Amino acid sequence: MKDLEVAYLQFNPAQALALTGFSQELANSGGPQACGVAQKANEYAEALRATLTPDQRTTLQRFTEGHLSALLFSQMHSPDDPLPEYLPCQSELEQDQGTLYLASRNQLLLALARYRAFAFDIDNDGKHVRLVANFKGGGTTQRPDEDRRRPVELSSHSGLRLGAHTEAPYNCSVIAHDGHSPAPSALILAARWNPAQEPTHIIPMAGIIERLGGLHALALTSCSFDFTRSECFVSGQGQAGKAVPILQFDANGGFSLRYNAYRFSLNDHASQAAERALDAFQALLMQAQPLPFVLQADKALLINNCRALHGRDTVMDNRRLLVRLFGYSPFARPLIISDDPLLVRG
């Protein structure tokens, strides 16, 4: 039985062919980081949208309006991209055409859902495209350059297990506040290589919030929680946060959640009600059965960052490489630094 919080959109052969051509054109133009590509992506999305069936349009609209936790795109063409013996270095992969193609396709799929691809100034060196892979160690298999005696950063650039989380920053969710842009509305992932069939896990949160109960949910909206600084932030930028809520009411989708199992804790001045609420919330998360999605190059997973948590187990095969982009919904109001490509203040 499929989870009602997750939807599936399969492209027909003609749509998949058009998507491939459009994505390649965007990649040839430089990909998501290049000026002018966002406008092209919007134009191509409009052309593709005209070919959608009524059911496909309804599915996309549900995600756009904030009523889905995740949307899996499938039946897309897989590029001819042989699996390497070893994962190439990060800088080489970032400039590679195979990466640019999947990043461009991700940007087009975001635009199809009426989302805008963007980057934070404080995160990922201000770049739109994030490569999710074990570049820094911590996986099941030791990297050739890895020193097991050294600590490994807890980020998507390591092979460590990543517990259930939404993406940082955690200061606000939809509207910019106190000099901070909101957290990403969504992220989209595609796998360039995933030889061990390692899943990305999704936990839809609507049912958990309902089971939590009114008083506990209300306590999670209080400014009673702290979070630690993300290792993905640019050196010298970004900071830890204190006295923030985990849960907020949101007219578009009903609620907005910001949480990280390995970064959030109770504030020193939190009430006992907030402490009980956090305990109950974490207990329900422990009981939750994450939904596994095994990504390959013919699929892309669009995750609602306000409505679902995601995570992964320890990386087993160091050649696993996912290509990620962040997206803002039509309702998001960030602090814009530059429009093309879209860069916002974190």
From TrEMBL:
Keywords, comma-separated and alphabetical: Oxidoreductase
Domain TauD/TfdA-like: 244-325
Region (Disordered): 136-158
Gene3D superfamilies: Clavaminate synthase-like
InterPro entries associated with the record: TauD-like_sf, TauD/TfdA-like
Biased composition (Basic and acidic residues): 143-152
Protein name: TauD/TfdA-like domain-containing protein
Organism lineage string: Bacteria, Pseudomonadati, Pseudomonadota, Gammaproteobacteria, Pseudomonadales
